[in-house]
Amino acid sequence: MIATQAPLAGAYVLEVERREDARGFFGRVFCVREFAALGLDPAVAQANVSFNRTRGTLRGMHFQYPPHAETKIVRCTRGALLDVIVDLRPESPTYLKHFAVELRADNHKSLYVPRRFAHGYQTLEDDTEVMYLTGEFYAPAAEGGVRFDDESVGISWPLPASEMSPKDLAWPSLRSREPELQQRMAPAVD
């Protein structure tokens, strides 16, 4: 596995270190030891799949508040998408900055998303499937979101949104709830 640090601390683009032969290739996409060596949390609580029928479908931007904040490993297993994360750690020098990477079934890349980040994506092809490994169980009471078009984040999506959930369209602006967000996303004090 080849791990490249993203511009937002703690986030990594993961690539397959290929062992190729006449059959194709073999490579590791997850390894507890390699994650630990990078200081990443290797815990996996759930594996989820998302299938998206239409190019332009937008899902996100989702997160869970602590103590249920989750890590994610996101991989496109069919089709293509633009995967986007937003740093919601108030103590971070990259607070409210975002990073985007194209994940495609044929580039075999994954994105490691740290805790206290919002995550979402837009499909670039019809019939796109996404696999998530999450480090925490889904906790509906801890769920939060960032509007896909929030001006304080400034994400440029490549396509008009063809499909979105009513919940994703209803997230309030970050600025309207920033004091609460900062308080709830603050690092735990020992």
Kindly describe this structure:
This protein is mainly beta. The chain has three helices and 13 strands, in the order E-E-E-E-H-E-E-E-E-E-E-E-E-E-H-H. It has helices at residues 32-38, 166-170, 178-185; strands at 2-5, 12-15, 19-21, 24-26, 46-52, 58-64, 72-78, 80-87, 98-104, 110-113, 117-123, 128-134, 143-145. The strands form three sheets. The protein has a six-stranded antiparallel β-sheet, with no helix packed on it. A five-stranded antiparallel β-sheet has the order 9-8-11-6-13, with no helix packed on it. The protein has a two-stranded antiparallel sheet with strand order 3-4. The termini are far apart.
Radius of gyration: 16 Å
Report, as a whole number of angstroms, the end-to-end distance. Answer: 33 Å
How many helices does DSSP assign?
3
The helix content is 10-25%
**Low-pLDDT residue spans:** none
Keywords, separated by commas or semicolons:
mainly beta; five-stranded antiparallel sheet; single chain; 190 residues; 3 helices; 37% strand
Layout of secondary structure:
Blueprint: E1 2-5, E2 12-15, E3 19-21, E4 24-26, H1 32-38, E5 46-52, E6 58-64, E7 72-78, E8 80-87, E9 98-104, E10 110-113, E11 117-123, E12 128-134, E13 143-145, H2 166-170, H3 178-185
Antiparallel strand pairs: 1-2, 2-10, 3-4, 5-12, 6-11, 6-13, 7-10, 7-12, 8-9, 8-11
Structure summary:
With 190 residues, the chain is mostly beta strands. It has helices spanning 32-38, 166-170, 178-185, and strands spanning 2-5, 12-15, 19-21, 24-26, 46-52, 58-64, 72-78, 80-87, 98-104, 110-113, 117-123, 128-134, 143-145.
